[in-house]
Amino acid sequence: MRHCIGLGFALCLVSACAVWPTAPTADGPEIIDEPVAETVDQIEETVEIAAANQKPSLIEREDETYYASAAFPPELQVIAPKLDAELRADAEMQFDKIAGLSKEMATAEPELFRPYGIGFTWEMLGHVEKLVSLKGLYYEDLGGAHPNYGLIGLLYHTETEQEIEVASLFVEPDTAQASLYPLVREGIIQAKIDRLTEYGMTKEEIVSDVDYTFSAEGTWLSIAALAPSADTDRFGGLTVYFSPYEIGPYAEGSYDITIAQADFRDLLKPDVHDLFAGEPLIPVEDDGEEDAA
Prior knowledge:
By secondary structure, the protein is α+β, with helices and mostly antiparallel strands. It has three domains: 7-53, no CATH class; 58-142 and 154-159, Fervidobacterium nodosum Rt17-B1 like (Heat Shock Protein 90, 2-Layer Sandwich), CATH 3.30.565.40; 166-292, no CATH class. Helices cover 31% and strands 25% of the residues. The chain contains six helices and eleven strands. It has helices spanning 7-17, 40-53, 76-79, 81-108, 173-196, 203-213, and strands at residues 23-25, 28-30, 58-62, 66-71, 116-128, 131-141, 148-157, 162-164, 225-228, 235-242, 255-260. It has a six-stranded mixed β-sheet, covered by helices on one side. It has a three-stranded antiparallel β-sheet with strand order 9-10-11. Helix 5 (173-196) packs antiparallel against helix 6 (203-213). Residues 1-37 and 287-293 have low confidence and may be disordered.
């Protein structure tokens, strides 16, 4: 998967127009008496224009009452500019809200108040043909016992310029969710075993806990994303995200459960089969997004 981004995009434009055409003659090609390349000044000007149009990957705000940040994949500005603009606008709107709330609380309870915080991080998981898959992390600190955060997947169609759900890729979404449920359940159980047995929880306790907090129904497939593949320019599966409190206490953290495309490709609509191949790339276990808190 190759994209021209930022300064690289400008250089691609320069290289595309640097060579002038030739006209054939009986004695061979005739060299047209034109410059064969842009001047150095023109190249530098093109690069400067591209750099000026490139939005920062990280936007931040801060004063004595609050701090806020949002991080975006730089390539999103080229691949899906409308989505990039929408995510930035939404972040700025949330910044405005927390700025107003923090100032209000700082005035009402100056002795107890400490700065509020909010943050967003969007990670590019993959771009295959017209589909872009992102993982989003939301962070919020409103002065409670601990900050809160949540995870969400986002799937975007670059031609229609609309967000879509992973479920819409299946012939029968309800049947697909029912078929995926035992696979996701097993993934949760194994992830909890890997994370919690060292703290004294038994497998039986973990299974009981999962069956109490997770069911085949619910909206868990609606916030899934498509996972990258070991095969170039393909998706290797789907990842379901569980934020703190959804299937366990806050201290347990969040979970990313990835299901390989081979386990559900027969349920996909025929026109999206070719978007999937290979084994999914599984994110490294990070003990529940510890760095987010």
